[in-house]
Amino acid sequence: MPLIPFLRLALVVILADNPAPPGPTVAREDTLHTSVPEVVVRAPRVTLDEILGRVARGEARRDSLILDEQFTATFRLTTLPRPSEEPRTEVEKVMRVYKRKPNLVRTEVLREYVRDQRSRGTVQMNFRGGMDEEIVNFAFRPENRRDYKYRIVGRDFIGGHLIYRIQFEPRSPLDPSAPSGTVWVDTNEFVILRQEIRFARSPAPLFVRGVRRMVIERKRYGQHWVLGRVLIRIDTTVPLPRVGRTFDMAMLFDDYALNQGLTADFFARRP
């Protein structure tokens, strides 16, 4: 007799000769089936136009809640000389930035590093006085809606938040500088948290062969969403002195202080 049937038979004999002691009997089920009746949801689904309108209102509300801000901005240019070599920081500039509505700006250079001293003074960083962060929401501003096409490409539920992924692209292919991209929108506040930008063609073909990747991210500071970092990788048409053909640019923003009551006199004084 094969081994497995023999063991089964022996188990049956043992159980028959040793009946279970008196006591409660517990039923054991190896399968469990359940069914839920279908429910027809008749509530209208939020349209894409309504979502875009909510994003515009959410961004405007975020802007309205910030009267003044100060933060540390770090610009870093990193080169990629050869595939076998490690990335190398060519320039790093750290600044403290103060802004007050509607258009007051003051900057102070905290630290500057230049690997090759011949490059000193070549990096200029300018900041606008507004708080609207147009670099994040340019394609979703009401005045620009007619220039882009939009579609929802995904919905994700993360940490109790429903996140919409919305793709945008220019309606006209005539302007090579007009980008396309994808944004991540938190539907709790309808604020853009992240943006990835692509260029079908080079925005400056004489000097730039292509922008491989551009990522813009926000982070939460208290009750506010603020700019966190901007990352760009660029390929040039010709090698640049001390840089080469490919380099990364990064802008990092931290050490925020919001609504501290900066006065106009503060901006009138020289750093």
Summarize the model shown.
The chain has 271 residues and is α+β, with helices and mostly antiparallel strands. The chain has helices at 3-17, 48-64, 134-137, 264-268, and strands at residues 68-79, 88-100, 104-114, 148-158, 161-170, 180-186, 191-198, 208-221, 224-240, 244-258.
Distance between the termini: 96 Å
Shape: globular
What's the alpha carbon Rg, rounded to whole Å? 30 Å
| Element string (H = helix, E = strand) | HHEEEHEEEEEEEH
- What is the number of strand segments? 10
With strands numbered from the N-terminus, the spatial order across the biggest sheet is: 3-2-1-10-9-8-7-6-5-4
Helix content: 10-25%
Name of the top-level CATH class of the domain at 46-66 and 131-201: Alpha Beta
CATH architecture of the domain at 46-66 and 131-201: Roll
Largest sheet: 10 strands, antiparallel
Tally of individual helices: 4
- Uncertain stretches: 1-20
Mean pLDDT: 82
How much of the residues is beta strand, in percent? Answer: 35-45%
Q: Which class of secondary structure composition applies to the elements?
A: alpha+beta
